[in-house]
Amino acid sequence: MFAGLGELVAEKTGVMNLGVEGMMLIGAIAAFAAAVHTDGNFVVGLSAGALAGALAALPFAILTLTLGANQAATGLALTIFGVGLSAFIGQSFVSYSLPGVQPLAIPLLSDIPVIGPVLFKQDVVVYFSFICFAVLAWVLAKTKLGLVLRAVGEYPEGAHAIGYPVTAIRYGAVLFGGAMAGLAGGYLSTVYTPLWVQNMTAGRGWIAVALVVFATWKPGRLMLGAYLFGGMTILQLHAQGFGVALPSQLLSAVPYIATIVVLVLISRDRKLLQLNLPASLGKPFIAGG
Fold first, then answer.
1. pTM value?
2. Does the chain have fewer CB atoms within 10 Å around its N or its C terminus?
3. 95 within a domain of the structure (yes/no)
4. 163: helix, coil or strand?
């Protein structure tokens, strides 16, 4: 959800960053290294991960927003770079592990049947993701900043004509997306599975990009999509534990198959996609160009 929300903000301003997977991996190794050197302090780790993700997004922003490079190609290059850099840095951290973070049960709410343990007996970072979602949804729907972000994504020339710094706004959105992707990667390596494994994101960055389309650029739908993917991931783990007579490789692929099926179904409704698609998505804007 963190990575998806960050990509949603970037795409709202018209920038398509396909480097989410790479930024997540860079954030994951940065967070893990910072946590290791601070005796398992996951707050420091997550902060380092977010910073590393933003720094990883900066070259993408310079190449695409200042120099006008192709956004899709540059994003793919960022992913390849992130995979290689994280693997190189992570070699010296393979043998380390972290204490992780214990779940925090919210009184009364965690006792609700079925949904209580799922939503209200989680670690503090999960609760923080709920806050991030609520704040972002409110900003995009109810504030002037949200209106400006949408205006830049829909008609950057018009936004520039009335005095808004389109390139600077897009820089901010891309760096925010990078920080959120780095935070997502940091969560994987310091809280979810508190150890470092090469390519530990396992395609979650690509799922985050797909979720933005699945959500038709709406935060509420993105949250539902993120929990759908997470639920399918947990379901396949339980299926293996119950001894379901299917190859483990097929069960591991279930979340990704489910995501593809949902995207295919969503893409059939072209009117819905066109209605919510930022008009300038993926198109370069050079002021005065």
1. 0.91
2. C
3. yes
4. coil
